Automatic annotation (TrEMBL):
InterPro entries on file: CARBOXYPEPT_ZN_1 (IPR057246), M14A-like_propep (IPR036990), M14A_act_pep (IPR003146), Peptidase_M14 (IPR000834)
One cellular-component annotation, GO: extracellular space
Designated name of the protein: Carboxypeptidase B
GO molecular-function terms, A-Z: metallocarboxypeptidase activity; zinc ion binding
PROSITE patterns listed in its UniProt record: CARBOXYPEPT_ZN_1, PEPTIDASE_M14
Location of the Peptidase M14 domain: 127-419
Active site as annotated: E385
Organism this protein belongs to: Drosophila pseudoobscura pseudoobscura
């Protein structure tokens, strides 16, 4: 059975007409666990029956946007369940339009002393960028530092886009390694923006970096899901998955963070190709997952840290997510997480929280974080949920990019120091 929204989404896939969210509301619904106990999966019902788009689901609340036409019916459903919705936004399209305006008002990137050493490309952090600009920035970093930087094209997506990783190292054979990725989820634009900023922070001042930074091998992949990212820029701002076709359905896309080979068939993902958390037809069924896991498996020697950037929620979480158990050295991960939280508070004033994943985000299998720990034995594994806490959600206005990216850099710096 397909509802209107899914039928519409299908038509859109064919025509590539931009999806609009005029007068769609963003709701925050508390206490869904009570309804769950009565066997009513609130998020799933709102998604499937009322065409809702789940933004975030955790142990405390559910954030979901509902189209204008379905608002009344969805309200009645909540009333019947004795649930209340706090309206976070009365018009999701207005958020999206504002985000865009904020960006085009941004002036040209600052020039100055920093541009001498830094990559002087069209890159800046006053707005979000398309994939080509990000890839051009990566190429530019490589050509500026040919002796220590290597640029890999590790594979291609379903739509034929390249998957690119940079390696920065003065001694790849001996140094301990840290992996950083972004853009697993298409709509979380702040993630690639943050990961490119981390790259910039590293390279604009490489010679003067402390030993715990210069003495590491850095692997950096700003956009793990290029097809989804471009689709979220051109057609549907709230798209989450990749864009690979399914054999059993007209719905496209797999949730890459449910596609990794760890607790894959367990909780927290869907077998329905139309769902936003569709786990795929098998573990690592997706090109993105497959090439990243193969690339990392080959380089697991000395791999000490795996950092993956998402939004939103302002959290620094560590394994496990696929089961309600902590890793053996959880106290170490908690301590390093706390240090990052404190440093962020000092730097930008933002409040982050560090915790074990399943406790704050619920149980979900197939995540890249758990996989790197379980399959490769990486010690410092963190998923960073960047800003904000629900005011704008994924549609974070460009004026917040710099400070948020600085928060992301602070986590990377803190983990690098912990590796030692
Ligand atoms: N928001 C992220 C997601 O849903 C959180 C990832 C946490 N880790 C995990 N393995 N579920 O993918
Ligand atoms: Zn995400």
């Amino acid at each position: 059975i397909m509802n209107n929204t899914q039928a519409m989404a299908m038509a859109l896939d064919v025509n590539e007409i931009p999806q609009r969210y005029d007068e769609a509301q963003l709701w925050r619904i508390y206490n869904i666990s009570e309804a769950m106990q009565r066997q009513v999966p609130v998020g799933q019902v709102l998604e499937q029956k009322f065409g809702g788009n789940i933004w975030k689901e955790n142990s405390k609340f559910l954030d979901i946007s509902i189209g204008k036409e379905q608002l009344k019916a969805a309200r009645s459903f909540l009333d019947a369940q004795r649930l209340d919705a706090q309206v976070l936004s009365e018009n999701v399209q207005a958020l999206i339009d504002e985000e865009h305006l904020d960006g085009i008002n941004a002036t040209a990137p600052e020039q100055g002393q920093r541009s001498k050493k830094a990559a002087r490309s069209s890159m800046h952090w006053k707005d979000y960028h398309d994939l080509e600009t990000i890839y051009a920035f990566m190429r530019e970093i490589r050509s500026k530092f040919p002796n220590i930087v290597r640029l890999y094209t590790i594979g291609q997506t379903a739509e034929g886009r390249d998957l690119k990783v940079l390696r920065i190292s003065e001694n790849p054979r001996e140094y301990k390694k840290i992996w950083i990725d972004g853009g697993i989820h298409a709509r979380e634009w702040i993630s690639p923006a943050t990961v490119t900023f981390i790259l910039y922070q590293l390279m604009s001042n490489w010679e003067n970096q402390p030993a715990h930074i210069r003495g590491l091998t850095w692997y950096i992949m700003p956009v793990m899901n290029p097809d989804g990212y471009e689709y979220s820029r051109t057609t549907n701002r709230l798209w989450r998955k990749n864009r690979s076709p399914s054999r059993r359905s007209n719905c496209l896309g797999v949730d890459l963070n449910r596609n990794f080979d760890i607790g894959w068939a367990g909780y927290g993902s869907s077998t329905n190709p139309c769902s936003d958390t569709y786990r795929g037809s098998s573990p690592a069924s997706e090109a993105e997952t497959k090439v990243v896991t193969e690339f990392l498996a080959k380089r697991k020697y000395n791999l000490e840290a795996y950092l993956t950037y998402h939004s939103y929620g302002q959290m620094i979480v560590y394994p496990w997510a696929y089961k309600a158990v902590k890793v053996k050295d959880a106290s170490v991960l908690q301590r390093v997480g706390n240090t990052a939280v404190q440093r962020i508070a000092q730097k930008t004033g933002s409040t982050y929280q560090s915790a074990v994943t399943h406790e704050v985000l619920g149980i979900a299998g197939g995540g890249s974080d758990d996989w790197s720990r379980a399959a490769l034995g990486v010690k410092y594994v963190y998923t960073v949920e960047l800003r904000d806490r629900g005011t704008y959600g994924f549609v974070l206005p460009p004026k917040f990019i710099k400070d948020t990216a600085l928060e992301g850099w602070t986590v990377a710096e803190t983990v690098a120091q912990a590796i030692g």
